[in-house]
Design a protein that fits this description.
heterodimer, A: 307 residues, mainly alpha, ABC transporter involved in vitamin B12 uptake, BtuC, two-stranded antiparallel ribbon, B: 409 residues, alpha/beta, Rossmann fold, 2 domains, 12 helices
């Protein structure tokens, strides 16, 4: 009851702050929410593997990068729009994720978590170096008219395409919540995440569950790779900064709290946008990103110790 | 009688063959040239390819004359991975293991700084294709008589931009630049560009403002705040100093925000693949040293371009390719002029270089602010027109007139 009341107060306070920012400088809120949508849509798949089945995947951003490259070359060859490629990219990355899981990650699951960390870190480097070897470091981008779609209110014009990431992140968060609470596989994933031995005793195929959840996360981040191509240029190292940001957002939201990733991303996106609006604080966005994360994690740890 | 004719015929044949062999004088032995580039980067990868092309062309023409005989050239390439420590190790390896007699290459200033102690230790002739930062020149010192720097220093580039814009405004009176805004990436490259812009344009009657952004190459890619600041300032010339990953996304965001500066100019080290095919690229200006459009007006450029495309089945994407190609020809011509690879003689021959380059100018060396041998001093102002980079300034190398203003969205 107390937790629910506290959450309600936080939401109300957040909304009030957002309204104040919107009145004072609407673009801060607009750009902040747009950036938050991108961060969240990339981080939520990591939230699934890290938070639910506790696999630390430091090659997360590289899965997105590979999907973006596959989309780029498919679009160049066929003239297809990256938006049409979202589902095929998701399917291909899911299959790729399944193979990577079977060949490598499953062998490190019973070892200490540091092994997974080093393994996936190595996989990430290998993926980006292979792409560099085959396609060079030259950046690639598909120029699309609709990404420059804009709305003008008074004297302010702003792009609206990036709101698509907000919608995708919200759909992912809601879809995964339904998946985890309403489907047998989702419930099995929760059980495997909490107690793999117990789950095996009650008849859940633990290895299969791990593999499917990893493939679903790969599919989601793969679909995001195709969508990411509409907004950004791609190059072999494009994914790695998003691995770090995703990891931080998952930690900030609390392991296992998928909707919380969306909330954390909005907080960070608006904080970044707010700082960039002032000349004196334009370079502080990255610092504040990590300061906020440290503050939230420390606060949560202190609260846990008290309780 | 028949036997006598046969002997005479054989004798004539042997004499003829010997005479012809003597005339040909096949090249004997090789001269090793060490090349250091960042091979994971398009600039270095294509730079090394272009250097190899030059080596093959020179060897196909018979090599170089040394000590009364012909020798072939051999290029030994090492990747510096854009890192100072790797670059330093590359010099050591090339000199001590491979036994090279001349060094060429270079791109990033940071990597070049790493090479300098080894350069000084061995004192071999170096023809450098990169390193724009004045800190490299300061580290080399005034007595680096073995260092031949082809790429303009940062202050050379800045001065040439100021000169170019003044000349363009004079020739095309409808182009008026009074207010200038620089969007610069947060790293060392962007900040150095901002400092240089303030110095170069600050005193020239221009009103200047600027703001940093986090480049997509370094995990950023959101340009809304910097474009909003620029739009509020209302510049006649909007210049961004970032990386190729920023080029199209920044344009897309500028269009979404209806940001219409008179001149929209980018200064990345390279451009993304197929940038020219984007509708947004039309009339974007850029700084550079070479563009394929120069093939229409420059014979050396066309020879280089055709050779590169024929050999590698791809277009040279940045000016580092013709620059590296030029470096090899400069070395080859100096060896032929000196007729030896002995250090002092080769350095004297390099100092007397006069090479008609594919970059649209004859390269010769003269003293810069610090070092004795500086090659190119001017960058060019170019513009994307109909998918091609056209040279706008210097006027003697121009392939098109500037289109102004930048299209309203």
């Amino acid at each position: 009851m107390a937790t629910k009341r506290r959450t309600t107060i936080l939401v109300v306070l957040g909304l009030a702050a957002a309204i104040l920012v919107a009145i004072w400088k609407p673009t801060v809120l607009i750009y902040g929410v747009q950036q938050a949508g991108l961060y969240a849509a990339i981080a939520i798949p990591m939230g699934l593997v890290l938070g639910i089945v506790h696999i630390v995947n430091l090659a997360h951003g590289e899965f997105m990068m590979i999907a973006a490259y596959a989309t780029y070359f498919a679009c160049r060859a066929t003239g297809m729009d990256p938006l049409i490629a979202v589902l095929p990219a998701a399917a291909v990355t899911a299959a790729f994720g399944w193979v990577v899981y079977k060949l490598t990650i499953r062998r490190a699951l019973k070892a200490p978590e540091l092994n997974q960390l080093i393994l996936t870190f190595g996989l990430g480097i290998m993926f980006s170096q292979l792409v560099n070897l085959f396609f060079t470091s030259q950046t690639r981008k598909i120029s699309l008219d609709y990404v420059s779609a804009s709305v003008t209110i008074g004297e302010t014009s702003f792009g609206v395409w990036q709101f698509v990431f907000v919608a995708v992140a919200a759909a992912m968060a809601y879809g995964l919540k339904l998946f985890l609470t309403r489907t047998t596989l989702g419930k099995a994933a929760l059980a495997v995440g909490q107690n793999p031995k117990g789950a095996a005793i009650v008849g859940i195929d633990v290895d299969r569950t791990y593999g499917i959840v990893f493939a679903i996360a790969a599919a989601l981040v793969g679909g995001m790779g195709a969508l990411f191509l509409t907004r950004s240029a791609i190059f072999p190292a494009v994914g790695s900064p998003f691995t770090m940001k995703s990891f931080s957002l998952v930690a900030m939201a609390g392991i296992g709290n998928i909707p919380g990733i969306l909330g954390s991303a909005i907080l960070l996106g608006i904080a970044e946008s707010l700082l960039r609006a002032f000349r004196a604080t334009r370079g502080w966005a990255d610092i504040v990103f990590f300061v906020l994360i440290i503050a939230v994690i420390l606060g949560r740890t202190l609260k846990w110790r008290k309780s | 009688m028949k036997k006598g004719f046969a002997i005479l015929a054989i004798a004539l044949l042997v004499i003829g063959t010997l005479a012809m062999t003597g005339c040909e004088k096949k090249p004997v032995g090789t001269i090793k040239i060490g090349g250091i580039w960042p091979l994971g980067d398009i600039t270095g990868r294509q730079g090394s390819m272009a250097a190899q092309l030059a080596i093959e062309e020179i060897n196909a023409a018979g090599g170089v004359m040394v000590d009364g005989g012909k020798k072939l050239l051999e290029l030994v390439v090492v990747d510096d991975e854009l890192k100072a420590d790797k670059a330093a190790a590359a010099v050591e390896k090339l000199v001590t293991v491979d036994g090279v007699e001349v060094l060429v290459g270079g791109m990033a200033s940071g990597a070049e700084l790493g090479k300098i102690p080894a350069f000084k230790k061995y004192g071999l002739p170096v023809v450098s294709t990169g390193a724009a930062s004045y800190t490299v020149e300061n580290a080399l010192g005034g007595d680096a008589s073995w260092y031949f720097h082809l790429h303009p220093w940062d202050y050379n580039q800045g001065a040439s931009y100021a000169e170019g814009w003044a000349a363009i405004q004079e020739k095309f009176p409808d182009i008026k630049i009074e207010k200038l805004f620089l969007a610069y990436e947060e790293g060392a490259f962007g900040k150095a560009s901002w400092d240089a812009t303030k110095v170069l344009f600050g005193g020239g009657g221009y009103v200047i403002d600027g703001a940093p952004f986090k480049s997509a190459a370094l995990g950023g890619g959101d340009y809304a705040s910097v474009l909003e600041a620029a739009k509020k300032f209302g510049p006649d010339l909007f210049l961004w100093a970032g990386y190729d990953a920023d080029a199209l996304p920044m344009l897309e965001q500028a269009k979404a925000m209806k940001f219409n500066p008179g001149v929209y100019l980018g200064a990345p080290p390279g451009w993304p693949a197929d940038f020219g095919k984007s509708k947004l690229a039309e009339n974007v200006m850029l700084y550079g040293m070479w563009a394929p459009s120069m093939n229409d007006t420059n014979v050396a450029s066309k020879k280089f371009y055709d050779g590169f495309v024929a050999k590698f089945k791809e277009e040279p994407a940045t000016y580092f390719a013709p620059l590296s190609y030029s470096a090899i020809y400069i070395v080859a011509e100096a060896i032929s002029a000196a007729k030896t690879t002995e250090k002092a003689a080769l350095i004297s021959a390099l100092a007397a270089t006069s090479y008609d380059s594919p970059l649209g100018e004859t390269i010769s060396f003269s003293k810069s602010n610090v070092i004795p041998y500086q090659g190119i001093r001017r960058q060019k102002i170019l513009q994307w027109q109909n998918g091609r980079q056209e040279v706008i300034w210097p006027f003697e190398a121009a392939t098109e007139s500037p289109v102004h203003p930048f299209p309203a969205w």
